[in-house]
C-alpha cells in the first residue's frame, strides 16, 4: 500500500513525536529480595511488572513497541520512494496514556444491533457488512488509526466509522455509500448527507464520504487521497 506523500510525512512525524514524549521502556530482570523479578525500566525508574503501576507501564510499553515497528516501516518505505528528508510537521500528539477525546470515548463500538448476520466480512478483528468496509478497516489499522464501527450518533444515525488518529484534535466520522447505482439508494444517501450537514458536520473535515456503484470502486488509492485531504484540513496544512 503506497501512502500519499503528505500522509506519509504526517504519520512519520506523529510516531516520532509520540515516542519523544515518554522515555523508552525496556524489559529487564532485577534481583529483588533474593528473587529474580521481571521489571520495566525507563529513565532512572525500575517498576515490577506484577504491580498495578507495572500493568499501566506495560500498556505504554506495548504501544511503544508497536510505534517503533510502524516508524521503522514508514522510514524504510520513505527512503525507497523519496530522495529527500522528511519535512518536520508539528502535531498535537498526546502523551502516552492520555485519554482520547471525551465524546469519542463515549461512542459505543458496534452499537447498531441490526441484521448482524449480514456481517460476513472479517477484518481488523471485527466483522463488517461489506468488503469495502472491511478494506477501510484494514487501512485504518495499517495506519495505526483507532476506529469504532457503526457507532450511535444522534437520532437514528449510525455512521459506518468513527476514527480517531492520535495526532488530530478529536475524531471524524466516515460514511460509505456502496450502492449508488440504485435510484432509491441515491435519494436516501442525499437525505442522510443533508442530515449530517444539518447536524453541523463539515464534509471533508468532520465526516468523510465515500461512494461506490456497479461501475465504480472506491479503491485504496482513492480512499487514501480522501483521507489525506481530511487529515490535512484538520491540521490546517
Description of the molecule:
The protein has helices spanning 5-19, 52-81, 102-106, 131-142, 183-198, 220-234, and strands at 26-32, 35-42, 45-48, 121-123, 126-128, 146-149, 161-164, 172-177, 207-211. The protein is α+β, with helices and mostly antiparallel strands and 237 residues long. It has two domains: 5-81; 102-234, no CATH class. A four-stranded mixed beta sheet has the order 6-7-8-9, sandwiched between helices. It is globular and about 75 Å long. The mean pLDDT is 90.
User: Main sheet?
Assistant: 4 strands, mixed
Total DSSP E strands:
9
SS-based structural class? alpha+beta
Instruction: List the helices and strands in order.
Output: HEEEHHEEHEEEHEH
Strand percentage: 15-25%
Number of domains: 2
What sort of overall outline do the alpha carbons produce when their principal axes are compared? globular
Provide mean pLDDT, rounded: 90
Please give the share of residues in helix.
Answer: 25-40%
Radius of gyration: 21 Å
Poorly predicted runs of 5 or more residues: none
The span between the termini is: 23 Å
- Widest sheet: strand order? 6-7-8-9
Number of helices: 6
